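Notes to self after the Tuesday call (sharing in case useful).
The group wants a holo model before anyone commits to mutagenesis around the pocket. I volunteered. Ligand is zinc ion. Logging inputs and output together so the record is complete.
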Amino acid sequence: MPPAPPATCRLCSAPLSALQRLTGDVCLAPRCRLAAARERTRARRDADLAERRAGAARLWQDDGLQRAPVVWIERHATRLVPLPAAVRRAQAAHLARLAAQLSAAPAADGSDPADPGHPGDPLPPDDTPLAPALCTFCGGRCCRYGAGTHGFVTTELLRRWLERHPQAMPADAAAAYRQALPRQHVEASCPYHGRHGCTLPQAMRSDICNRYACDALRTLQDHPEHATVVAAMDRAEALGPVARLRRDGPRVLPHAGRRRPRAG
Ligand code: SF4
Ligand code: SF4
Ligand SMILES: [Zn+2]
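Result:
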């Protein structure tokens, strides 16, 4: 005997009318309908992911791909455009202001810029073997925060640069940051977000740039033992590109419809 239709909404427990019982198990309240629609979209996304993993596992003869843990990252646009002149000018003006502040008050915080006693805490050891593959595949979504913050470049960063270049002047530090600006950057992202990632060497980046980890990266940091991980992009709960992450980099999974190798 088929199970009796539910008498109440499975999400909010409100009683269902006879018609609602026949058509589903969720009431007509907008909140419940929205939640049910999200569940369906997410189930479709997960089914798409399972299909894509299975296809790639067959194509690449990589059974481990099916068992690899999944991390989700948010899809974002990574269109390269010439660095807008206005952005370049604004960054140059920002750097000039910082240099002027340093020249006017080199020890405003009570420290001496020539004293290398405040180089910032050392970075934690990089024991996350898949981190470069993840961030390469992602394309630097977190660097969008650098757009409104001049790439997080502060007087403190210029001060650190001067500590490494004891013969130089604040204007030289500003010039070094100016010269690091790329010709092309990711549209609407940080001025230093270039074709191959950040154009600043690690020592010139802010602590926040060097230490930030999104949820996906934190998952990898918590599990350095994973040799293979699947990274999936989603936007509005729909499946975007998916990649297998290994120490040697990301490899994008083909779409299910493209899984057969071309003849010849
Ligand atoms: S930390 Fe996260 S958001 Fe930033 S580049 Fe890496 S994967 Fe992308
Ligand atoms: S890591 Fe580089 S590109 Fe990203 S926000 Fe920092 S300075 Fe900008
Ligand atoms: Zn309900």
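Two things stood out.
Confidence is low (pLDDT under 50) at residues 110-119, 258-264.
The chain has two domains: 1-67, 80-216.
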